[in-house]
Amino acid sequence: MKLLLRFPRPGHKTPRTAEVILETGAKINIDKANVDAVSGELIVDVPSDKVNSVAEHFREKGVEVRKLMKLIAWDEERCIHCGACISICPTGVFKFNPSWQIELEEDKCIRCEVCVNVCPFRALACVD
Amino acid sequence: MADTKKSIAEINERIEDGSVHVVTADRMSEIVTELGAEEAAKEVDVVTTGTFGPMCSSGAFINLGHADPPIRMQRVWLNDVEAYAGIAAVDAYIGATQVSESVDLDYGGGYVLEDLVAGKQIEVKAISSGTDCYPRKELETTITLEDLNQAVMLNPRNAFQRHEVATNSADRALYTYMGTLLPNSRNANYCGAGTLSPISNDPDFETIGIGTRIFLCGAQGHIVGMGTQHEPISRFGTLMVSGNMKDMSPEYIRGATLYRYGVTLYVGIGIPIPVLNAKIAAKTGVRDSDLTTEVIDFSVPRRERPVMMKVTYEELKSGMIEIEGKEVPTSPLSSFYMANKVADALKNAIKGGEFFLTQPVERLPTDTVCKPMKQTKELPLVKDVMIREVATISVRASIADAAKLMMKSQITHIPVTSEEGKLEGIVTAWDISTAVATRHEGLAEIMTRNVIAVDSEERLELVIRKLEKDNISALPVIDRDQRVIGMITSDGISRLIGKERRWQWKLRL
Ligand code: SF4
Ligand code: SF4
Fold first, then answer.
1. Chain B residue numbers touching A86 (CB-CB < 8 A)
2. Phi and psi for B238 in degrees, rounded to 5?
3. Disulfide check for B362: which of B48, B210, B371, B396 has CB 3.0–4.6 Å away?
4. A95: nearest CA in chain B?
């Protein structure tokens, strides 16, 4: 399960992510990090049995937590199965099935958004 | 055993009475492999091909009918996309790659064509200087495909026989007509339908010719003639095709945007190949493993790009090719799924007695070549404008020496050379001031080592792009032995272009 974390004021003194890892013992994987002067955003992958306690601990530390139900939205109606997304995706989310239709392994997605622009038919989107 | 010989008329009779045997080109490859060409020719009457991919050289002639008071349109826009109006009063040609004047690459001619076929409303704007017979100067209206007198698709170059495979060895991403190419050859994009490709199933144009009836975006269209840049000798045949947009289906015509490159149109084309004899059957037996193409390095911004290797469509379609010992994932930009759908739709139309084959009126040329452009107003080469008297400094010199040389020569960029005179780095006034602040002394410690240098034979356009891209103001010019033979500066280029008006438009100054 992936969580979207929004940190107010990234320059916070305590290392909140590290603390949550220690407190919950969850093996958290950081998929994506965006940090700028006013806010920080992380996408983390958390083992499903620890999701709730990890979310709870982050919230206690003032971090906004959202469960990402949809990592990458694919509009099948718009897609013509050109495969442009296949070779561009860093984690191999897309592949062809035997009849040359595109298939997604959504849980591999790290929301880098590269495919969103590359799709010539605007069939892909990262929605919150 | 007598050789099989069929005529188009006989095949059409079988279409009429429902006994025709039609297969798609991928199935035909299997049949020929199993039974051999002679048996396959007996067995099969028609092979249907199909392709669905980006075909930039596409567009349509439209006629809007006359307004009251009438206008002779001099410029016309459809949903803010300009169409060519330099023909009769209310005729125009809307080209696939023209981009929108309001939303740029998010919309363009390809989308206008798709929207027309989908029956959507299109905003029309036109202007004119007015004449005695066409007094009107401005026009705004809304139309749909139905409102047009004619909407005839005429695509100058479609159905390419094959395409080069694009990859990029540079260290930054490139945005091209072959899609986004990741740095360091991390992906490779290709195009074309492989075994289903129309021309690959009739590479000698024995049945495909002028007047051949084809499937074009769901309509029954025709081949008008050879496509532009038709070069069948090197297996780069192309077709010019035409069809009535009013009969097309939105499923087979789609506008598309290649990120940071431009707008194009995905066109669905299917061509029936009549299996008149065993020789033709053998050619329609073509497999992905028989079709080869070349991997090209797009990091070289010239017409002649280096060929890295040859690959077959079978290898490309496996999803991975090996470039210089590295596994590289591949993406087709055309859709095999849709190409199959086109070939199937054509097969069903023939079987259902709705689509009859035609005898070409004339054959297409098989010996034309695609010449490069004749260029008469080129920008000069680097060697024509470079400063030849350049001060260089040895890599063993001190920072103080470099500072003195800069003062004396009034130059802020000095190439640093080895004992043998080879380019080792560059030192700028900025480097020197930082060196003073950080108390460095030797030149070797502070110079920039990864210097971008240019060849004296390079075209100035490319050099200007380099200067702009990396925000550099001067580049050393080197010869084959890496020896510094000159310097090229952005000031020098500006001065030159200021003088020569004819170059200004080229550089969009
Ligand atoms: S790039 Fe877009 S249209 Fe092409 S296969 Fe992927 S999702 Fe479909
Ligand atoms: S957002 Fe990135 S990781 Fe996710 S599918 Fe697109 S390219 Fe792959």
1. 319, 329-331
2. -140, 165
3. B210
4. B319
- A89 and B183 Cβ atoms separated by less than 8 Å: no
Alpha helices in B68-191 (DSSP H): 109-117
What are B51's strand-pairing partners? B269
Backbone angles phi, psi at B349, to 5 degrees: -65, -40
Interface of B with A in 373-392 (CB under 8 A): none
pTM of the model as a whole? 0.78
Strand intervals (E) in B113-235: 122-127, 138-143, 150-158, 165-167, 174-176, 179-181, 188-190, 209-210, 213-216, 219-226
> Hey, is A15 helix, strand or coil?
coil
pLDDT score recorded for residue B509: 39
CATH number of A73-125: 3.30.70.20
Radius of gyration of chain B from Cα atoms? 29
User: What's the CA gap between B357 and B7, in Å, rounded?
Assistant: 10
User: How many angstroms separate the Cα of B8 from the Cα of each of B5, B28, B348?
Assistant: 10, 19, 18
Kindly tell me the sign of the dihedral angle through the C-alpha atoms of B183, B184, B187, B188.
positive
Fold classification of B382-504 (topology level): CBS-domain (3.10.580)
What 8-state DSSP symbol labels residue B300? S
> Is B383:B457 a contact under the CB 8 Å cutoff?
yes
Residues 6 or more apart in contact with residue B169 via CB below 8 angstroms? B184, B185, B297, B299
Q: A100 CB near a chain B CB, below 8 Å? A: yes
Every domain of chain B with CATH number 3.10.580.10 lies at 382-504
- Side chain identity at B491, as an amino acid letter? D
CATH 3.30.70.20 segments of chain A: 73-125
Q: Which residue intervals of chain A bear CATH 3.30.70.260?
A: 2-68
Judged by a CB distance cut-off of 8 A, whether residue A29 touches chain B is no
What's the gap in Å between the CA of B260 and the closest CA on chain A?
A: 9
Q: How do residues B74-133 score in pLDDT, each as one tens digit? A: 999 999 999 999 999 999 999 999 999 999 899 999 999 999 999 999 999 999 999 999
Least confident piece of the model among A90-94, B44-48, B249-253, B401-405: B401-405
For domain A2-68, give its CATH number from 1.10.3720.10, 3.40.930.10, 3.40.50.1820, 3.30.70.260.
Answer: 3.30.70.260
Contact between B475 and B454 under an 8 Å Cβ cutoff? The reply is yes
- Residues B170 and B182 sit within 8 Å (Cβ to Cβ): no
Helix axes A16-24, A51-60, angle to 10 degrees: 140
The position carrying tokens 């989310």 is: A93
ipTM: 0.76
Closest CA to B338 of B406, B263, B283, B268: B268
Instruction: Convert the pLDDT of each residue in B388-416 to its tens digit.
Output: 888 899 988 888 888 898 888 888 889 99
